[in-house]
């Protein structure tokens, strides 16, 4: 049985910000959905790039050594492995992330 | 420099159906965008699962040994590696795919 997953339904499972839920596994990767609201702390993932896709809303990812990344609905950016970053969102936004299953969303520290 | 990619802009680069273009690389994976319109032939990818996310429109993926997968806007499904499939779309639809960079969109044969 091949499941179909509706992002609209998944959004209803998001109860608190900065707490990604699993949408789907594919190969050794995972798509996760999260509510971004307010500011999240600085962190990094030593071995994993992280793709951010803004499904609803608008976010900013602050990135050490790079200009801020402003991402609006329908926009994508990839934070390379080892790069310290801190996402924030001035309004509640829904973000789809695509990353290795080994990635700890909270960062290495 | 970390690039931001707008799916809306990428759509303008889609000139013909069933011809995925690269959106972004992330780890050893790639996000590709394609216009689905009409029917595509049966094929499979021996070693790679393929994630389909319908960005605009509505598609059907016929899958050997499984019921058809009907996917509407905002819906996701994963076709497991080795499973023969044939996508079709009754209307022009825009689909984002997540898959290993090794995956040949045209299939192994």
What is this structure, in a nutshell?
With about 110 residues, chain A is mainly β. Chain A is built from 1 helix and 8 strands, in the order E-H-E-E-E-E-E-E-E. Helix content of chain A is about 5%, strand content about 50%.
Structural class of chain A: mainly beta
* CATH class categorisation of chain A: Mainly Beta
Report the count of strand segments of chain A: 8
| CATH fold type of chain A | Jelly Rolls
Per CATH, which architecture of chain A?
Sandwich
Q: Can you tell me the overall shape of chain A? A: globular
**Unreliable parts of chain A:** none
**Biggest β-sheet of chain A: count, sense, barrel?**
7 strands, antiparallel
Average pLDDT metric of chain A: 95
Number of domains of chain A: 1
Element-level helix/strand string of chain A: EHEEEEEEE
CATH superfamily membership of chain A:
Jelly Rolls
Oligomer: homodimer
How much of the polypeptide of chain A forms β-strand, as a percent range?
Answer: over 45%
List the helices and strands and how they pair.
2 copies of one chain form a homodimer.
Chain A: E1 5-6, H1 7-11, E2 21-26, E3 29-39, E4 50-56, E5 58-63, E6 69-72, E7 75-79, E8 85-100
Antiparallel strand pairs in A: 2-3, 3-8, 4-7, 4-8, 5-6, 5-8
Structure report:
Two copies of one chain form a homodimer. Chain A has 109 residues and is mostly beta strands. Chain A has a single domain, classed as Jelly Rolls. Helix content of chain A is 5%, strand content 52%. Chain A has one helix and eight strands. In chain A, strands 2, 3, 4, 5, 6, 7 and 8 form a seven-stranded antiparallel β-sheet that branches. In chain A, a hairpin with a 2-residue loop joins strand 2 (21-26) and strand 3. The longest helix of chain A is centred in the N-terminal third of the chain and has 5 residues, at 7-11. The relative contact order of chain A is 0.29. The model of chain A has no long low-confidence stretch (mean pLDDT 95). Strand 7 of chain A pairs antiparallel with strand 1 (4-6) of chain B.
